[in-house]
Amino acid sequence: MAKEELTKECTTCGAVFAISPEDVVITCKYCGATFDVEGKKVPDHQMLPTLKEKAIKENTIKFLQKHEGVTRALDKQAVVEEVKLNYIPYWVCPFKSNTHYFGVKRSTVTRTRTVHDSRGRTRTETYTVPIYRSEEGDFQRSGREKVIARKHTVFYGFDNFEKKLKLDSIEGFDFNKIKSLNAEFINAEVDPVEASRQSYGWVEDENRRIAGSKLYKLVRCDSQIDMYAPIYVHAPLWQVRYKFKNEVYKVSIMGDSGTILKGEIPLTLGRRAANYLAGLSMIIAGAFAGQYGLSILNNIFNTSKWLGNALMILGVAAIVLSFLLTRTAFKMQLEKD
Ligand SMILES: [Zn+2]
């Protein structure tokens, strides 16, 4: 059977474009209209603002300058070959919750007692006893959870992207403002119902954790949680590719702040060889010191135990260091964030 290509017609401009079968919210790359699979417009589409391409390139160069200790003249010889902007979708899920909890609280009291010793003398002694009592309480909590609207995401630096993703400074989605950037709009694979359900679970877990932290033992925790309609947000993630000595390396950058999320730094052959030699000579030195070090030193100084111990520690440190050095010797590049 021939594989059928899945396409969608934009409900606003009529353009037809390919989508993936898992897409549940779709953004038209020609006009920015955003709708669900049934063609219903997404009501509150927002975005995080982004820096311009020039600033992204400048940040890339700054990042390369920072790691010149690893590869000399990196920023001067590196050529930025490609700068690409992806807009990644996520859901912002507002909530309000009321929690009632019940459990056991533990405290201690200090008491005194009189002690008689074998000679018939008495003295007083203090001691503590634990006291358990039941306790209940309430608290309210409101806020917003964020849920990445993708299930299978393969963007370079994505785990850091998720951590740095902000909930404030979002603004109305404005296609005209960003269309000159040639961005790719990534479609959502997670619908708002699923995002809400996931957020609900997180809110409940967090309430339980808070209640538990107030008590010795949590017996019951009931949360009344109201979830409000999730807001659909697109966040900018830049992918930069640069060339250095005929090899291509990646850097990924957060669009709103310009923060480097992750980047590859080349290790030149000279650098790797130096690491390897340093590692190897340390292994040899360590082995030699282990074998003969103590007897040589004992002959010279005519002592002692601490010298042997110190030597042992040094030997272990040398082996660990040489392991690290030889390991980087076999890597073609480093990863920094
Ligand atoms: Zn369109």
Shape category: flat
Q: What bound compounds does this protein have?
A: zinc ion
- The parts where pLDDT drops under 50 for at least 5 residues are none
Class per helix and strand makeup: alpha+beta
Radius of gyration: 31 Å
Major sheet size, sense and barrel closure: 10 strands, mixed
Mean pLDDT: 87
Please tell me about this protein's structure.
This protein is of the alpha+beta class and 337 residues long. Among the domains are: 43-96 and 142-202 and 222-264, no CATH class; 269-336. Helices cover 32% and strands 38% of the residues. It has helices at residues 53-66, 74-77, 158-164, 175-178, 192-213, 269-301, 305-329; strands at 7-9, 16-18, 25-27, 34-36, 45-47, 79-116, 122-148, 171-172, 184-185, 217-227, 231-244, 247-254, 260-266, 333-336. The strands form three sheets. Strands 5, 6, 7, 8, 9, 10, 11, 12, 13 and 14 form a ten-stranded mixed β-sheet that branches. A hairpin with a 2-residue loop joins strand 11 (231-244) and strand 12 (247-254). Helix 6 (269-301) packs antiparallel against helix 7. The chain is flat. Zinc ion (ZN) is lined by residues 10, 12-13, 15, 28, 30-31, 33.
Keywords:
337 residues, alpha+beta
Summarize, please:
32% of the residues lie in helices and 38% in strands. With 337 residues, the chain is an alpha+beta fold.
Q: Mind sketching the topology for me?
A:
Elements: E1 7-9, E2 16-18, E3 25-27, E4 34-36, E5 45-47, H1 53-66, H2 74-77, E6 79-116, E7 122-148, H3 158-164, E8 171-172, H4 175-178, E9 184-185, H5 192-213, E10 217-227, E11 231-244, E12 247-254, E13 260-266, H6 269-301, H7 305-329, E14 333-336
Parallel strand pairs: 5-11, 6-9
Antiparallel strand pairs: 1-2, 3-4, 5-8, 6-7, 6-10, 6-11, 11-12, 12-13, 13-14
Helix pairs in contact: 6-7
The structure holds zinc ion (ZN).
Zinc ion is lined by residues 10, 12-13, 15, 28, 30-31, 33.
